[in-house]
Amino acid sequence: MLVIIAAAAENNALGKDNDLVWHLPDDFKRFKQLTSGHYIIMGRKTFESFPKPLPNRTHVIITRQKNYEVPEGCKVVNNLEEAIAICPNNETIYVIGGGEIYKQSMDLADKIELTRVHTEVEADTFFPQIINSDWSIINEEYHPSDEKHKFAFTYFTYIRATKEEI
Predict the structure, then answer these.
(1) Does residue 150 fall inside a structural domain?
(2) What is the pLDDT of residue 166?
(3) Quick check: helix, strand or coil at residue 11?
(4) What three-state secondary structure class fits 33?
(5) What are the residue boundaries of the DHFR domain, all occurrences included (predicted)?
(6) Rounded to whole angstroms, how far apart are CA atoms 118 and 124?
C-alpha cells in the first residue's frame, strides 16, 4: 500500500526554505508512530532537511544528482517509479515529501494521511489539491490549539474512492 503522509495548511502550504512553518509535537508523534518500521520515500531536499536519517525507517531518496552520497541504510534512486520498485511488495510504504514528490504520487497512492493545519501561511512548497471525487474520508480527528500547538489541526485519513462510490 502506498500512503502519502503530510501536514498542510488550509492554503496547502507545506513549508518554506526547506523547513516546516509550524511546530506541532502531536503531529510529529503521529508521523513517527505511523512511519516507524516502514520504507519512507522522499525527495532529496526533504532528506536534507533532516539533521540525520529518521530512526527505524528505510529512507528512499529520489534525486537526479549523480553519485549522491547518503548514510548507510539509505537508498538512492532517480524517480518515483524506481523508489516504489525497490520497496518490498505487500508492505506499507510512505511518501513523505516534498511538494513535487507528493504531486507525482497522487495518482499512485492508495491512502492519504493528511494533517490539515487550520491556518494559512506563506510558503514556497505546497501540497497538491485533493480531488474529492478521487478520495473518501474514512477518519477525521480534530485537535484544538493549546500551549504546545499554536494552530488547531485535523487529522484526515483518505482512501482512494472506488468506482462504485463515484
Answers:
(1) yes
(2) 43
(3) coil
(4) helix
(5) 1-160
(6) 18
